[in-house]
Amino acid sequence: MNTPRIRVLLVEDGPHEAALARMFLADSPEAPERFELEVAASFSAACAALGRGGFAAVLLDMGLPGDGGIEAFRRLHELCPECPILVLSSVQDEDAARRAVELGAQERLVRGALDGRLLKRAIRYAIERRRLLAQAADLLARDRDGKIVLDGTGLVRYANAAAADLLSRKPRELLGRPFSHALPGAGRGRLELKRADGEDRIAELWCDEIEWRGAPGRLVTLRDVTDSLQVARLRAEAAEALRTAEAHGNILSCISHELRSPLTTVKMAVSFLQDGSAGPLTPRQAQFLEMASRNIDRQTRIIDNNLDLARLQSGKVRVEFRPVELEVVVSELAHEFAMTGKERLELDIPPGLPAVAGDSDLLTQVLRNLLDNAFRFARQKVVVRACAMPQGVQVSVLDDGAGIPRDRLGELFHRFAQVGRCAKRDGYKGTGLGLAICKEIVEVHKGRIWAESDQGQGARFHFLVPRFQYLQKLSRPA
């Protein structure tokens, strides 16, 4: 079994004292370790020995002539700060020894009161204390909060890397100087800082009374709260935006409901007049009534679309995902449009498309809105195309109209968006809500919708909805 070896440097010019220390540290059967003593008879010899390294502790004679006393301790401590120093003093050196302890010496030993057991124990304890202090210093150095120690006069005696970084300084640039910011009397304060890179930061600051190297001091903690304040501000803004949107949606919903009833009454009155229930009409009267009927229908569509959109955006729509055969949905809509005289619809639907997950009525509404939009702007025909994708089914609605400017494609799915396409026949371009409704429905189905176009070459609208089996797999608990 290998006995632990502890190398000790004794800085001592007296041969008798050096021989006594060597005797005290000699091997003994009960000792769990072996001490190796090297003697440096001068300060310069001690510096050379420490430069070679390998010492676990230093015994320093405070009465060393020439370069002795507190200045010797300071210089040796700076030369090897990780090595614990134990100072040896007599009655005459008592004040210097006490000051050395305040500055970081691990132990003060009085000559004439030493024996082998006491000296060995003091060295072991000093090494262990230094190890624990090194661990604590490492924890402070790694702390993400800035840590600064001020002495009783307000000078900085310690600063970790986080504090120096927050103050745009190096730790050594802070040491020995006054802390340049006001400290809170009680509780916490805040500092507004401008870093060297020009970035503005906000730090929370608080103080604790501590003892530092045997004297009263203060521990100043700095915490960078810039990001957390920004997150809190963004959350508050998002919450306010949500409240505003909900209030807007509620107001719009109420107005829409209030408008629906009088419009229904007006529509009924116009219908009675048109069918001659109130007497014959002149051609000009019939023309005015037809115009009124068209505009009533348009306003009704706007109200219905607003109500649908408000319901979808409120998050209150809950889709019960069931298998939906899009091939059937497209075929039924094609028949419906053919019945209304829109026979320019071509289908490119391969058989055996996989079922998608969703609500059949809502997906029918998406396709109907896209077809209404396409027929409004098509010159000759509209094409509906579908294809199976790895995770879902993609449906495309293509028209051969004037197309949409590429720089306006991103606006299409916004509420009331109108991108300047020329409408056909009656000049009606829609409410500007149909595509916004499509987007909300597709996103509720965990899908996506987008548009492509080249000016003068028509528009292509696509939406992709997950397969039923794929969505089941995603929803299944792990």
Topology of helices and strands:
Layout: E1 5-11, H1 15-24, E2 34-40, H2 43-52, E3 57-61, H3 69-79, E4 85-89, H4 94-102, E5 107-110, H5 116-142, E6 146-150, E7 156-159, H6 161-166, H7 171-174, E8 189-194, E9 200-212, E10 215-224, H8 226-274, H9 283-313, E11 322-324, H10 326-339, E12 345-348, E13 356-358, H11 360-377, E14 382-388, E15 392-399, H12 434-444, E16 448-453, E17 459-466, H13 468-475
Parallel strand pairs: 1-2, 1-3, 3-4, 4-5, 12-14
Antiparallel strand pairs: 6-7, 6-10, 8-9, 9-10, 11-13, 14-15, 15-17, 16-17
Helix content class: 40-55%
Arrangement of strands in the largest sheet = 2-1-3-4-5
Largest sheet: 5 strands, parallel
Residues in β-strands, percent: 15-25%
Globally, the shape reads elongated
What are the low-pLDDT stretches, counting only 5+ consecutive residues below 50?
none
**CATH-wise, what's the superfamily of the largest domain?**
Histidine kinase-like ATPase, C-terminal domain
Q: CATH topology of the largest domain, anyone?
A: Heat Shock Protein 90
Evaluate the radius of gyration.
43 Å
Order of helices and strands: EHEHEHEHEHEEHHEEEHHEHEEHEEHEEH
Question: How many separate domains?
Answer: 4
CATH class of the largest domain: Alpha Beta
Mean pLDDT comes to: 79
N→C terminal distance: 53 Å
